[in-house]
Design brief:
It is a single chain. The chain is of the alpha/beta class. The chain has 2 domains: 192 residues, 2-enoyl-CoA Hydratase, Chain A, domain 1, CATH 3.90.226; 49 residues, Lyase 2-enoyl-coa Hydratase, Chain  A, domain 2. Helix content is 46%, strand content 16%. The strands form 2 sheets. The protein has a 6-stranded mixed β-sheet with strand order 1-2-3-5-7-10, sandwiched between helices. The protein has a 4-stranded mixed β-sheet with strand order 4-6-8-9. Strand 1 and strand 2 form a beta hairpin. Bound molecules: octanoyl-coenzyme A.
């Protein structure tokens, strides 16, 4: 049983709802541990093709838990390698869709950016306000935000701590779609179901290839993509997908 998250599954989609409403879903270490465990289980489950992470109408997550962090010391954070566990979220191999309404601040924004697709409600507000607390982003904010929205906007957000609304986030390339708040979960689940209906290994290899773009030169990335593309012709799902198209019927992927 989980104390800080709700975990459900339906139609090959896992759904994790952050559930610390009194603290606007602030990410304490217990919540992060539960989240990583649930994501890891979905990642290894052959009946799950995609996961949605969401919060409440008011907050996706208002950051790392400030009350939990306030008394920490440098040797302690270093020795414990604070937030190392959170890196495991970005290491998941199956896609994760973040459905964001309300505040996605600090660690909340960083959590959304560790997901593969961010869908925002028109109420969403993103920001890296850590500087106002005398710290800075600690689970990838300075790196992922810069890659997603560019250096100028990332610098603006990280140095002023201001919030950016959903329209600005979409314009900047942080989120892929903005929808009315009432439709957020339906839209995110539909996206996840669509992904989960594809061949799982192809989905995973595609995620890996897209992520390569952040890690390598264009020539290396293209080479990696070509090798993986060639390898897909060894799968039954390539045969099925192309046969289904030619026979004008939906594919029945076997995920292999
Ligand atoms: N941590 C702990 N408690 C929080 C947090 C938080 N990040 N955010 C909100 N809360 C609590 C409040 O203390 C309050 O509790 P209580 O009712 O007991 O007083 C409750 O949630 C409701 O909050 P507010 O009364 O403040 O609600 P408002 O609507 O007035 O304001 C805001 C909403 C603007 C979101 C405001 O709560 C706020 O500014 N929160 C802090 C945002 C922030 O600074 N986030 C960054 C945190 S630092 C961080 O994330 C570092 C990242 C490093 C790695 C992270 C790893 C996961």
């Amino acid at each position: 049983m989980h104390e800080h998250i709700l975990v459900e599954r339906a139609e090959r989609v896992g759904r994790i709802t952050l559930n610390r409403p009194k603290a606007l879903n602030a990410l304490n270490s217990a919540l992060i541990a539960e989240l990583v465990k649930a994501l890891t289980e979905f990642d290894g489950d052959p009946d799950i093709g995609c996961t949605v992470i969401t919060g409440s109408d008011r907050a996706f997550a208002a950051g790392a838990d400030i009350a939990e962090m306030s008394g920490l010391t440098y040797p302690g954070t270093y020795l414990d390698d604070l937030f190392r566990l959170a890196d495991r979220i970005a290491e998941r191999r199956k896609p994760i869709v973040a459905a964001v309404a309300g505040f996605a601040l600090g660690g909340g924004c960083e959590l959304a950016m560790m997901c593969d697709i961010i869908i925002a409600a028109d109420t969403a507000k993103f920001g890296q306000p850590e500087i106002k607390l005398g710290v800075m982003p600690g689970i990838g904010g300075t790196q992922r935000l810069t890659r997603l929205v560019g250096r100028t906007k990332a610098m603006d957000l990280c140095l002023t701590g201001r919030m950016m609304d959903a329209a600005e986030a979409e314009r900047s390339g942080l989120v892929s779609r903005v929808v009315p708040a009432a439709k957020l979960l339906d839209e995110a689940m539909e996206v996840a179901r669509t992904i989960a209906s594809m061949s799982i290994p192809v989905v995973m290899m595609t995620k890996e290839a897209v992520n390569r773009a952040d890690e390598t030169s264009l020539a290396e990335g293209i080479r990696f993509e070509r090798r993986v593309f060639h390898a897909l012709f060894a799968t039954a799902d390539q045969k099925e997908g192309m046969a289904a198209f030619l026979e004008k019927r939906p594919p029945a992927f076997k995920h292999g």
